[in-house]
Amino acid sequence: MKWIDIPPVWLAASLLAAYFLGQSQPWNLSIDHPLTQFLAAVLIGGGLILMLLAITEMRRQRTTVIPHLEADQLVQSGIFKRSRNPIYLGDVIILAGFILRWDAPVALPLAPILLWVLEKRFVIPEENRLRRKFRQDFFKYTQQTRRWI
Prior knowledge:
It is built from 4 helices and no strands.
Protein backbone atom coordinates (compact mmCIF):
# COMPACT_ATOMS: atom_id res chain seq x y z
CA MET A 1 0.00 0.00 0.00
CA LYS A 2 3.01 2.31 0.31
CA TRP A 3 3.02 2.82 -3.46
CA ILE A 4 -0.44 4.39 -3.27
CA ASP A 5 0.55 6.71 -0.40
CA ILE A 6 2.21 9.28 -2.62
CA PRO A 7 1.48 12.99 -3.07
CA PRO A 8 -0.07 12.70 -6.56
CA VAL A 9 -2.72 10.37 -5.13
CA TRP A 10 -3.51 12.87 -2.35
CA LEU A 11 -3.67 15.67 -4.93
CA ALA A 12 -5.97 13.62 -7.17
CA ALA A 13 -8.27 12.82 -4.23
CA SER A 14 -8.38 16.50 -3.28
CA LEU A 15 -9.11 17.50 -6.87
CA LEU A 16 -11.96 14.97 -7.06
CA ALA A 17 -13.42 16.26 -3.79
CA ALA A 18 -13.12 19.87 -4.99
CA TYR A 19 -14.75 19.05 -8.32
CA PHE A 20 -17.72 17.29 -6.75
CA LEU A 21 -18.14 20.01 -4.14
CA GLY A 22 -18.18 22.53 -6.97
CA GLN A 23 -20.78 20.52 -8.86
CA SER A 24 -23.06 20.24 -5.86
CA GLN A 25 -22.90 23.98 -4.99
CA PRO A 26 -24.29 23.33 -1.48
CA TRP A 27 -24.75 27.02 -0.55
CA ASN A 28 -25.04 28.55 -4.03
CA LEU A 29 -21.78 30.43 -3.52
CA SER A 30 -19.98 31.62 -6.61
CA ILE A 31 -16.76 33.45 -7.34
CA ASP A 32 -17.01 33.03 -11.11
CA HIS A 33 -15.48 36.04 -12.84
CA PRO A 34 -13.01 36.48 -15.70
CA LEU A 35 -10.41 37.69 -13.20
CA THR A 36 -10.95 34.55 -11.10
CA GLN A 37 -10.49 32.39 -14.19
CA PHE A 38 -7.26 34.22 -15.02
CA LEU A 39 -6.00 33.73 -11.46
CA ALA A 40 -6.92 30.04 -11.69
CA ALA A 41 -4.86 29.64 -14.86
CA VAL A 42 -1.91 31.45 -13.26
CA LEU A 43 -2.08 29.21 -10.18
CA ILE A 44 -2.37 25.97 -12.14
CA GLY A 45 0.41 26.97 -14.52
CA GLY A 46 2.58 28.28 -11.71
CA GLY A 47 2.15 25.10 -9.69
CA LEU A 48 3.08 22.96 -12.69
CA ILE A 49 6.15 25.11 -13.40
CA LEU A 50 7.24 24.86 -9.75
CA MET A 51 6.95 21.08 -9.89
CA LEU A 52 8.76 20.86 -13.22
CA LEU A 53 11.63 23.05 -11.99
CA ALA A 54 11.98 20.93 -8.84
CA ILE A 55 11.86 17.59 -10.65
CA THR A 56 14.37 18.82 -13.22
CA GLU A 57 16.75 19.95 -10.48
CA MET A 58 16.41 16.68 -8.58
CA ARG A 59 17.11 14.70 -11.76
CA ARG A 60 20.09 16.93 -12.50
CA GLN A 61 21.44 16.17 -9.03
CA ARG A 62 20.71 12.45 -9.57
CA THR A 63 18.47 11.96 -6.57
CA THR A 64 15.02 10.48 -6.20
CA VAL A 65 11.75 12.36 -6.43
CA ILE A 66 9.88 9.49 -4.75
CA PRO A 67 9.00 10.58 -1.19
CA HIS A 68 9.47 7.27 0.64
CA LEU A 69 12.95 6.63 -0.75
CA GLU A 70 16.18 7.93 0.72
CA ALA A 71 17.76 10.84 -1.13
CA ASP A 72 21.22 10.42 -2.61
CA GLN A 73 21.88 14.16 -2.61
CA LEU A 74 20.77 17.15 -0.58
CA VAL A 75 19.44 19.40 -3.33
CA GLN A 76 19.95 23.06 -2.43
CA SER A 77 20.22 24.63 -5.87
CA GLY A 78 17.71 25.93 -8.37
CA ILE A 79 14.18 26.31 -7.03
CA PHE A 80 15.33 24.60 -3.81
CA LYS A 81 17.11 27.85 -2.87
CA ARG A 82 13.64 29.39 -2.42
CA SER A 83 11.65 26.51 -0.93
CA ARG A 84 12.59 23.18 0.61
CA ASN A 85 9.36 21.66 -0.73
CA PRO A 86 8.51 23.15 -4.13
CA ILE A 87 6.76 20.02 -5.43
CA TYR A 88 4.38 19.86 -2.46
CA LEU A 89 3.85 23.60 -2.68
CA GLY A 90 3.02 23.11 -6.36
CA ASP A 91 0.43 20.47 -5.39
CA VAL A 92 -1.37 22.92 -3.10
CA ILE A 93 -1.18 25.77 -5.62
CA ILE A 94 -2.60 23.53 -8.36
CA LEU A 95 -5.47 22.49 -6.09
CA ALA A 96 -6.24 26.14 -5.30
CA GLY A 97 -6.20 26.93 -9.01
CA PHE A 98 -8.64 24.19 -9.88
CA ILE A 99 -10.94 25.20 -7.02
CA LEU A 100 -11.12 28.66 -8.58
CA ARG A 101 -11.42 27.22 -12.10
CA TRP A 102 -14.36 25.03 -11.08
CA ASP A 103 -16.00 27.85 -9.11
CA ALA A 104 -16.01 25.75 -5.96
CA PRO A 105 -15.45 28.21 -3.07
CA VAL A 106 -16.83 25.69 -0.57
CA ALA A 107 -13.80 23.53 -1.45
CA LEU A 108 -11.26 26.21 -0.51
CA PRO A 109 -10.61 24.60 2.91
CA LEU A 110 -9.23 21.59 1.02
CA ALA A 111 -6.06 23.57 0.18
CA PRO A 112 -4.84 23.99 3.79
CA ILE A 113 -6.00 20.45 4.56
CA LEU A 114 -3.88 19.11 1.69
CA LEU A 115 -0.95 21.21 2.93
CA TRP A 116 -1.34 19.69 6.39
CA VAL A 117 -1.57 16.13 5.03
CA LEU A 118 1.52 16.61 2.86
CA GLU A 119 3.47 18.06 5.76
CA LYS A 120 2.55 15.27 8.20
CA ARG A 121 2.80 12.33 5.77
CA PHE A 122 5.73 13.41 3.61
CA VAL A 123 7.60 16.60 4.56
CA ILE A 124 8.38 15.79 8.19
CA PRO A 125 9.45 12.17 7.54
CA GLU A 126 11.58 13.31 4.56
CA GLU A 127 13.22 16.04 6.59
CA ASN A 128 13.97 13.56 9.37
CA ARG A 129 15.71 11.26 6.87
CA LEU A 130 17.66 14.18 5.41
CA ARG A 131 18.60 15.39 8.91
CA ARG A 132 20.00 11.96 9.80
CA LYS A 133 21.88 11.52 6.53
CA PHE A 134 23.23 15.02 5.88
CA ARG A 135 23.40 16.32 9.46
CA GLN A 136 25.25 19.68 9.43
CA ASP A 137 24.57 20.39 5.75
CA PHE A 138 20.85 19.90 6.27
CA PHE A 139 20.91 22.10 9.39
CA LYS A 140 22.57 24.91 7.41
CA TYR A 141 20.06 24.45 4.61
CA THR A 142 17.12 24.77 7.02
CA GLN A 143 18.62 27.98 8.37
CA GLN A 144 18.88 29.47 4.86
CA THR A 145 15.72 28.15 3.18
CA ARG A 146 12.16 28.13 4.48
CA ARG A 147 10.07 24.98 4.41
CA TRP A 148 7.39 26.43 2.14
CA ILE A 149 8.06 29.98 0.89
